[in-house]
Amino acid sequence: MADGVKLTNKELSDAQALARQPTEKELALRKHTEGRLLGLRINRYSWWVHARELADFFLPRRYKWLITPNQMGRGSPINQHILDSTPSLAARNLASGIMYGVTNPTTPWFRLSLGKWNSAGTDPVSIWLAQVEAVIFQIFQESNFYQALAILYFDLVIFGTGSMIIYEDHENVINCVNPCFGEYYVDCNAKLNRNDVFYREFTYTIQQTVERWGVENVSPSVAALYKQQGSGLTRELIIAHAIEPNYEAQKYGVPSKFAYREVYWEWGGSASPQGGSSFAPGLLEKRGFYEAPHLNPRWDTVANDAYGRSPAMDALPDCKQLQLQVRRQAQGIDKHVNPPLLADQQLKNQPTQFIPGGITYIAGLMSSANPGMTPAYGSWKPDLAAMNENLELVRGRIKEIFFNNLFQTISQYQTRSNVTAEEINARRAESLIMLGPVLERLQIELLAPAIERTFSIASRAGILPQAPGQIAGAELSVQYISMLSIAQQASKTSGMDRILQLAGNLAGVDPQIMDVIDFDYFMKRYNFLMNNDPLIIRQDPAIAQIRQNREQAQQQQAAAQQADTAQKVATGAQTLSQTEVGGGQNALQLAMGRAA
């Protein structure tokens, strides 16, 4: 953030007060968290095994099978199951489509409102809301929020569950962390069926552990390695981490003002005090949070499952089929280009080799019509056209499972010149209906908590503008204005278009049918669904004044026309009265002329 807008981390300062709690409470907290971690590990087992298979075929670099310190083979190739990258590319397209369709970093994707006020108005409350939006968007831009979101969306598409922790940060206000699947455990509550318990295991080197928590807070074995320096600094150990609701606050020594608590400890570390630490033995750190710092959205859920289900789970059979067929096709091509051969035994005596390029020697081949060496399969050729056709069918199913047709609507019609905008909109609306429940879940489990968390951190840091007094007690709400949200809302206008078209057709038979439609509400609702600027539609008093002025102008015009008509009638009557049609002056002059 700019100078003068640095964050004063209130949560971190409150952690110092937590450290002065009695040792017995800290020991009770460690016993509780260790036991719960073991229970969560058992509950996650089936998801953990399934996720390994998903990682093998889609995303091998974002998964941990075992949290093992001091591994030597972390950089070795681990994507041996992937021969065709279509599934990974399809998953990436879906993750990117969600990223830029829901939370585009280059455009506003949400709008704040308070009761009747929103950020589109010109009153003081609306101006304050617009300023708050600008601050939150600036925080998102200058922190690693969008980078973390991109990682989360990819995890969500593959494993069905994503993970992100939003911490306070002195420089960028917030800092986001993405634990990978396999190192974390989650559990959901009973009230809203949302994940509010988050545990994980990860590795730190001795150097990293001491840098973060201090040599006085680590176990004696870790402290000894740190004091030795040298290669001991690169040794790793497992760190356990827990975030959960702060129930039984007094029992575990965490102030009840915090809604959530966080604990770090060495997994399997020593429980004896070291160096006069104010923390309880074996605990590296504990602190509280005013709102949940962890976000664990799910793609789809069944019953009260803590972990979600993903498109990759649906595409896994097709992915396996694709990789096998690609392997078989490559083998067929290789045997065609470099076929195994049959040769006369007199040439050389070797075991059978039916691999591409291998030679099998048999007796009597030179005495036949063959020249002594011939392809083992004769004139056989692989049917590459049929193979490619089948592979394209499998690739198409995979892309459809990953909703690529939703984000590539235009490219699907490149071969057609007669496609209409109505056809494209209908296809988009059909796809959005299928993706709608996912967007709703993302708004509830990811976006709303992220905005609330960032708003609260910024508010405690004192970097939000002073709020007007009239908003006291009003509840802040969020309206999503991303591309997909707008498209979903706009899809509702198709029914309005049809009813207006029907009314227009019936008006030719009975004009009174147009009296049924409230055109004022129709335009306001249509403008809202299209997510246009609300100021495009005039307010009711302005509309009433315009209509009153128009009515007065029409009345004045009618009066003027009536007066003009009356004047013309009077002038015509006067002219007619002065016209001689017989007798009078003209008749007298005519008579005198005749007399003369």
Provide the descriptors you would attach to this structure in a database record:
flat, 14 strands, alpha+beta, 596 residues, 18 helices, 5-stranded antiparallel beta sheet
Can you give a write-up of this model?
With 596 residues, the chain is an alpha+beta fold. The chain has 18 helices and 14 strands. The chain has helices spanning 10-18, 23-43, 45-57, 86-102, 124-142, 145-159, 206-213, 220-228, 249-252, 311-337, 384-401, 404-407, 421-461, 483-490, 493-507, 519-529, 540-577, 584-595; strands at 110-114, 117-118, 164-169, 173-177, 184-188, 195-205, 236-245, 260-266, 283-289, 294-295, 341-344, 359-362, 373-375, 476-480. The strands form four sheets. Strands 5-6-7-8-9 form a five-stranded antiparallel beta sheet. A hairpin with a 3-residue loop joins β3 and β4 (173-177). α5 (124-142) packs across α13, α10 runs antiparallel to α11 and α13 (421-461) crosses α14 (483-490). It is flat, with a radius of gyration of 39 Å. Residues 1-9, 11-22 and 270-280 have low confidence and may be disordered.
